[in-house]
Specification:
Length: 346
Protein backbone atom coordinates (compact mmCIF):
# COMPACT_ATOMS: atom_id res chain seq x y z
CA UNK A 1 0.00 0.00 0.00
CA UNK A 2 1.13 3.57 -0.70
CA UNK A 3 0.97 5.97 2.25
CA UNK A 4 -0.81 9.08 1.02
CA UNK A 5 -0.13 11.16 4.13
CA UNK A 6 1.58 14.51 3.50
CA UNK A 7 4.19 13.56 6.09
CA UNK A 8 5.14 10.05 7.18
CA UNK A 9 6.39 9.59 10.73
CA UNK A 10 7.72 6.31 12.10
CA UNK A 11 10.40 4.68 14.20
CA UNK A 12 13.29 2.85 12.59
CA UNK A 13 15.63 1.40 15.13
CA UNK A 14 17.05 4.27 17.16
CA UNK A 15 15.76 6.93 14.77
CA UNK A 16 12.60 8.94 14.68
CA UNK A 17 12.09 8.93 10.92
CA UNK A 18 10.36 11.71 8.96
CA UNK A 19 9.47 11.64 5.26
CA UNK A 20 8.06 14.75 3.59
CA UNK A 21 5.53 13.16 1.27
CA UNK A 22 4.00 15.67 -1.14
CA UNK A 23 6.14 15.03 -4.23
CA UNK A 24 3.44 16.32 -6.57
CA UNK A 25 3.77 19.70 -4.78
CA UNK A 26 7.58 19.47 -4.50
CA UNK A 27 7.01 18.60 -0.82
CA UNK A 28 5.80 22.12 -0.02
CA UNK A 29 5.18 22.44 3.70
CA UNK A 30 1.55 22.90 4.76
CA UNK A 31 -0.06 23.46 8.14
CA UNK A 32 -0.85 19.81 8.87
CA UNK A 33 2.79 18.86 8.16
CA UNK A 34 3.99 21.58 10.54
CA UNK A 35 1.70 20.34 13.30
CA UNK A 36 2.50 16.66 12.83
CA UNK A 37 6.24 17.22 12.73
CA UNK A 38 6.21 19.35 15.86
CA UNK A 39 4.09 16.78 17.72
CA UNK A 40 6.49 14.02 16.70
CA UNK A 41 9.56 16.01 17.74
CA UNK A 42 8.07 16.71 21.15
CA UNK A 43 7.18 13.04 21.56
CA UNK A 44 10.61 11.77 20.51
CA UNK A 45 12.44 14.35 22.61
CA UNK A 46 11.31 12.56 25.77
CA UNK A 47 11.62 9.02 24.37
CA UNK A 48 14.89 7.39 25.49
CA UNK A 49 14.54 4.80 22.73
CA UNK A 50 14.95 7.56 20.10
CA UNK A 51 18.52 8.88 19.92
CA UNK A 52 18.24 10.93 16.72
CA UNK A 53 15.75 12.32 14.21
CA UNK A 54 16.20 11.77 10.47
CA UNK A 55 14.33 13.87 7.89
CA UNK A 56 14.13 12.91 4.23
CA UNK A 57 11.74 13.48 1.34
CA UNK A 58 9.84 11.53 -1.28
CA UNK A 59 9.95 12.00 -5.03
CA UNK A 60 13.60 12.54 -5.81
CA UNK A 61 13.25 16.08 -7.22
CA UNK A 62 12.76 18.23 -4.14
CA UNK A 63 13.48 17.98 -0.45
CA UNK A 64 10.97 20.81 -0.09
CA UNK A 65 10.52 23.75 -2.41
CA UNK A 66 9.00 25.95 0.29
CA UNK A 67 5.68 26.68 1.93
CA UNK A 68 2.30 26.15 0.31
CA UNK A 69 2.09 29.64 -1.21
CA UNK A 70 -0.85 28.84 -3.44
CA UNK A 71 -2.95 27.94 -0.41
CA UNK A 72 -1.86 31.14 1.37
CA UNK A 73 -2.66 33.18 -1.75
CA UNK A 74 -6.14 31.69 -2.05
CA UNK A 75 -6.89 32.11 1.66
CA UNK A 76 -5.90 35.76 1.57
CA UNK A 77 -7.97 36.46 -1.54
CA UNK A 78 -10.91 35.10 0.39
CA UNK A 79 -10.19 37.59 3.18
CA UNK A 80 -8.60 35.07 5.53
CA UNK A 81 -5.26 36.77 6.15
CA UNK A 82 -5.53 35.81 9.80
CA UNK A 83 -5.52 32.14 8.85
CA UNK A 84 -2.28 32.72 6.95
CA UNK A 85 -0.76 34.46 9.96
CA UNK A 86 -1.80 31.56 12.17
CA UNK A 87 0.09 29.23 9.79
CA UNK A 88 3.23 31.35 10.08
CA UNK A 89 2.89 31.40 13.88
CA UNK A 90 2.97 27.62 13.90
CA UNK A 91 5.69 27.33 11.27
CA UNK A 92 8.03 29.75 13.06
CA UNK A 93 7.42 27.93 16.36
CA UNK A 94 8.43 24.68 14.62
CA UNK A 95 11.62 26.34 13.35
CA UNK A 96 12.42 27.24 16.97
CA UNK A 97 11.76 23.68 18.17
CA UNK A 98 14.21 22.38 15.56
CA UNK A 99 16.83 25.01 16.38
CA UNK A 100 16.74 24.13 20.10
CA UNK A 101 16.28 20.36 19.68
CA UNK A 102 18.42 18.44 22.20
CA UNK A 103 19.04 15.38 19.99
CA UNK A 104 20.80 15.10 16.63
CA UNK A 105 18.46 16.27 13.87
CA UNK A 106 19.69 15.02 10.49
CA UNK A 107 18.21 16.40 7.25
CA UNK A 108 19.17 14.41 4.15
CA UNK A 109 18.77 16.92 1.33
CA UNK A 110 18.98 15.54 -2.20
CA UNK A 111 17.03 18.02 -4.30
CA UNK A 112 15.51 21.50 -4.18
CA UNK A 113 15.42 23.12 -0.74
CA UNK A 114 13.86 26.57 -0.52
CA UNK A 115 11.72 28.66 1.82
CA UNK A 116 9.78 26.46 4.22
CA UNK A 117 11.97 23.50 3.28
CA UNK A 118 14.98 25.43 4.53
CA UNK A 119 13.10 26.03 7.77
CA UNK A 120 12.73 22.29 8.48
CA UNK A 121 16.36 21.51 7.64
CA UNK A 122 18.89 24.31 8.11
CA UNK A 123 18.26 24.73 11.86
CA UNK A 124 19.03 21.08 12.56
CA UNK A 125 22.39 19.87 13.84
CA UNK A 126 23.27 17.98 10.63
CA UNK A 127 22.44 18.96 7.04
CA UNK A 128 23.67 16.44 4.49
CA UNK A 129 23.87 17.56 0.85
CA UNK A 130 23.37 14.97 -1.86
CA UNK A 131 24.31 15.36 -5.53
CA UNK A 132 21.06 17.18 -6.36
CA UNK A 133 21.24 19.63 -3.46
CA UNK A 134 19.82 22.95 -4.70
CA UNK A 135 19.38 25.69 -2.09
CA UNK A 136 17.89 29.15 -2.53
CA UNK A 137 15.98 31.81 -0.65
CA UNK A 138 13.95 33.27 -3.56
CA UNK A 139 11.47 35.33 -1.56
CA UNK A 140 12.51 38.79 -2.79
CA UNK A 141 11.40 37.69 -6.26
CA UNK A 142 7.81 37.21 -5.09
CA UNK A 143 7.45 40.37 -3.00
CA UNK A 144 8.10 38.49 0.25
CA UNK A 145 11.22 38.33 2.44
CA UNK A 146 13.64 35.61 3.59
CA UNK A 147 11.89 34.04 6.56
CA UNK A 148 11.79 30.69 8.45
CA UNK A 149 14.80 31.85 10.45
CA UNK A 150 16.78 33.42 7.61
CA UNK A 151 17.30 36.49 9.81
CA UNK A 152 19.40 34.18 12.00
CA UNK A 153 21.20 31.90 9.56
CA UNK A 154 21.95 34.19 6.61
CA UNK A 155 24.17 36.57 8.65
CA UNK A 156 26.07 33.54 9.94
CA UNK A 157 27.13 32.27 6.54
CA UNK A 158 30.76 33.13 5.67
CA UNK A 159 31.53 36.71 4.69
CA UNK A 160 28.71 38.38 2.77
CA UNK A 161 27.25 35.14 1.38
CA UNK A 162 24.07 35.52 3.40
CA UNK A 163 23.43 38.98 1.99
CA UNK A 164 24.18 37.66 -1.51
CA UNK A 165 21.69 34.79 -1.08
CA UNK A 166 18.98 37.00 0.38
CA UNK A 167 19.21 39.76 -2.24
CA UNK A 168 19.90 37.80 -5.44
CA UNK A 169 17.89 34.62 -4.75
CA UNK A 170 20.71 32.78 -6.53
CA UNK A 171 21.22 29.07 -5.92
CA UNK A 172 23.86 27.20 -3.98
CA UNK A 173 24.39 23.68 -5.25
CA UNK A 174 26.09 20.61 -3.85
CA UNK A 175 29.70 21.54 -4.56
CA UNK A 176 29.33 24.80 -2.59
CA UNK A 177 26.97 23.59 0.11
CA UNK A 178 29.49 22.88 2.87
CA UNK A 179 31.83 25.77 2.10
CA UNK A 180 28.90 28.17 2.13
CA UNK A 181 27.77 26.85 5.51
CA UNK A 182 24.32 25.75 4.34
CA UNK A 183 25.16 22.05 4.68
CA UNK A 184 27.36 20.43 7.31
CA UNK A 185 28.33 17.41 5.16
CA UNK A 186 28.47 16.35 1.50
CA UNK A 187 27.54 12.73 0.75
CA UNK A 188 27.12 11.17 -2.69
CA UNK A 189 23.50 10.36 -3.48
CA UNK A 190 24.41 6.76 -4.30
CA UNK A 191 25.42 6.32 -0.66
CA UNK A 192 22.26 7.79 0.87
CA UNK A 193 20.53 4.41 1.27
CA UNK A 194 23.45 2.99 3.24
CA UNK A 195 23.68 6.16 5.31
CA UNK A 196 19.99 5.96 6.11
CA UNK A 197 20.38 2.38 7.23
CA UNK A 198 23.29 3.34 9.45
CA UNK A 199 21.39 6.22 11.01
CA UNK A 200 18.79 3.76 12.29
CA UNK A 201 21.48 1.98 14.32
CA UNK A 202 23.52 2.86 17.37
CA UNK A 203 26.69 4.35 15.85
CA UNK A 204 27.06 7.97 16.99
CA UNK A 205 25.69 10.36 14.37
CA UNK A 206 28.85 12.45 14.02
CA UNK A 207 31.08 9.43 13.46
CA UNK A 208 28.67 7.76 11.06
CA UNK A 209 28.15 10.77 8.79
CA UNK A 210 31.86 11.57 8.83
CA UNK A 211 32.55 8.07 7.49
CA UNK A 212 30.30 8.73 4.49
CA UNK A 213 31.20 12.37 3.85
CA UNK A 214 33.24 13.69 0.93
CA UNK A 215 35.96 16.32 1.47
CA UNK A 216 34.61 19.85 1.19
CA UNK A 217 35.12 21.37 -2.26
CA UNK A 218 34.82 24.84 -3.77
CA UNK A 219 32.26 25.37 -6.51
CA UNK A 220 31.29 28.42 -8.55
CA UNK A 221 29.79 30.43 -5.71
CA UNK A 222 32.80 30.02 -3.44
CA UNK A 223 35.01 30.98 -6.38
CA UNK A 224 33.21 34.36 -6.41
CA UNK A 225 33.73 35.04 -2.70
CA UNK A 226 35.99 38.06 -3.23
CA UNK A 227 33.44 39.72 -5.52
CA UNK A 228 30.54 38.83 -3.21
CA UNK A 229 32.28 40.03 -0.05
CA UNK A 230 33.42 43.27 -1.64
CA UNK A 231 30.10 44.36 -3.13
CA UNK A 232 27.55 42.93 -0.68
CA UNK A 233 29.23 44.57 2.31
CA UNK A 234 27.98 47.95 1.06
CA UNK A 235 25.70 49.87 3.39
CA UNK A 236 22.54 50.13 1.25
CA UNK A 237 20.84 48.17 -1.50
CA UNK A 238 21.42 51.12 -3.83
CA UNK A 239 25.15 51.00 -3.06
CA UNK A 240 25.28 47.25 -3.66
CA UNK A 241 23.56 47.59 -7.04
CA UNK A 242 25.73 50.55 -8.06
CA UNK A 243 28.91 48.71 -7.12
CA UNK A 244 27.93 45.61 -9.08
CA UNK A 245 26.89 47.59 -12.12
CA UNK A 246 30.16 49.53 -12.14
CA UNK A 247 32.20 46.32 -11.93
CA UNK A 248 32.79 45.12 -15.49
CA UNK A 249 33.66 41.57 -14.43
CA UNK A 250 31.13 38.96 -15.57
CA UNK A 251 30.30 37.61 -12.06
CA UNK A 252 29.39 41.10 -10.81
CA UNK A 253 27.26 41.78 -13.88
CA UNK A 254 25.44 38.48 -13.34
CA UNK A 255 24.73 39.38 -9.72
CA UNK A 256 23.40 42.79 -10.74
CA UNK A 257 21.18 41.08 -13.28
CA UNK A 258 19.89 38.69 -10.63
CA UNK A 259 18.75 41.62 -8.50
CA UNK A 260 16.94 43.41 -11.31
CA UNK A 261 13.22 42.84 -11.21
CA UNK A 262 13.14 41.87 -7.54
CA UNK A 263 10.66 43.73 -5.34
CA UNK A 264 12.34 46.96 -4.13
CA UNK A 265 10.65 46.89 -0.73
CA UNK A 266 11.59 43.24 -0.22
CA UNK A 267 15.23 43.94 -1.08
CA UNK A 268 15.45 46.68 1.54
CA UNK A 269 13.71 44.57 4.20
CA UNK A 270 16.02 41.64 3.46
CA UNK A 271 19.15 43.76 3.83
CA UNK A 272 17.87 45.14 7.14
CA UNK A 273 17.22 41.57 8.35
CA UNK A 274 20.72 40.39 7.57
CA UNK A 275 22.35 43.43 9.16
CA UNK A 276 20.28 43.29 12.35
CA UNK A 277 20.18 39.53 12.69
CA UNK A 278 23.95 39.39 13.22
CA UNK A 279 23.56 40.59 16.81
CA UNK A 280 20.14 39.11 17.64
CA UNK A 281 19.34 35.83 19.36
CA UNK A 282 17.54 33.17 17.36
CA UNK A 283 14.26 33.86 19.15
CA UNK A 284 14.58 37.60 18.55
CA UNK A 285 15.08 36.86 14.85
CA UNK A 286 11.92 34.76 14.71
CA UNK A 287 9.89 37.42 16.49
CA UNK A 288 11.15 40.03 14.03
CA UNK A 289 10.13 37.83 11.10
CA UNK A 290 6.63 37.50 12.48
CA UNK A 291 6.43 41.27 12.78
CA UNK A 292 7.48 41.58 9.14
CA UNK A 293 5.11 38.93 7.80
CA UNK A 294 2.23 40.52 9.71
CA UNK A 295 2.75 43.65 7.57
CA UNK A 296 3.64 41.93 4.31
CA UNK A 297 0.46 39.83 4.36
CA UNK A 298 -1.59 43.05 4.45
CA UNK A 299 0.26 44.62 1.53
CA UNK A 300 0.16 44.17 -2.25
CA UNK A 301 3.60 43.04 -3.42
CA UNK A 302 3.40 39.51 -2.01
CA UNK A 303 0.15 38.72 -3.80
CA UNK A 304 1.37 40.29 -7.00
CA UNK A 305 4.55 38.22 -6.79
CA UNK A 306 2.71 34.95 -6.16
CA UNK A 307 0.33 35.77 -8.99
CA UNK A 308 3.15 36.46 -11.44
CA UNK A 309 5.43 33.57 -10.51
CA UNK A 310 3.14 30.80 -9.23
CA UNK A 311 -0.45 31.43 -10.40
CA UNK A 312 -0.30 33.06 -13.84
CA UNK A 313 3.40 32.31 -14.38
CA UNK A 314 3.92 35.34 -16.60
CA UNK A 315 6.96 36.31 -14.49
CA UNK A 316 6.06 39.98 -14.95
CA UNK A 317 5.15 41.34 -11.50
CA UNK A 318 4.22 45.01 -11.09
CA UNK A 319 5.77 46.15 -7.83
CA UNK A 320 4.47 49.10 -5.81
CA UNK A 321 6.74 50.98 -5.50
CA UNK A 322 8.85 49.83 -8.41
CA UNK A 323 12.01 51.83 -7.62
CA UNK A 324 14.46 51.41 -4.74
CA UNK A 325 14.58 55.17 -4.23
CA UNK A 326 10.85 55.17 -3.48
CA UNK A 327 11.22 52.84 -0.46
CA UNK A 328 12.03 55.01 2.54
CA UNK A 329 13.81 53.99 5.72
CA UNK A 330 10.61 54.75 7.65
CA UNK A 331 8.79 52.24 5.46
CA UNK A 332 11.38 49.58 6.26
CA UNK A 333 11.26 50.37 9.98
CA UNK A 334 7.48 49.98 10.01
CA UNK A 335 7.90 46.27 9.25
CA UNK A 336 10.07 45.73 12.35
CA UNK A 337 7.82 47.61 14.77
CA UNK A 338 6.33 45.69 17.73
CA UNK A 339 2.93 44.04 17.38
CA UNK A 340 -0.02 44.08 19.68
CA UNK A 341 0.10 40.28 19.62
CA UNK A 342 3.72 39.14 19.35
CA UNK A 343 4.94 35.70 18.35
CA UNK A 344 5.21 33.34 21.33
CA UNK A 345 7.87 30.66 20.96
CA UNK A 346 8.12 27.33 22.77
Amino acid sequence: MVDESDIILDRRGMAGFVTLNRPEALNAVNRSMVRELRDALERWRDDDAVSRVVVTAAGGKAFSAGGDLRAIFEASLAGRQQASLDFWREEYALNAVIRHYPKPYVALIDGIVMGGGVGVSVHGSHRVAGDRFDFAMPEVGIGFFPDVGATWFLPRLPGALGTYCGLTAERIRAEDAVGAGVATHRVRSARFADLLEGLCGTVPVDALIAAFAEPAAAGPVMAMRDTIDRHFAAHTVEDIVAGLESDRAAPAQAMAGAMRGKAPRSLKIALAQVRRGRSWSFDDCMRAEFRIVSRVVRGEDFYEGVRAVIIDKDNAPHWRPDQLSQVTQDEVERHFAPLERELILP
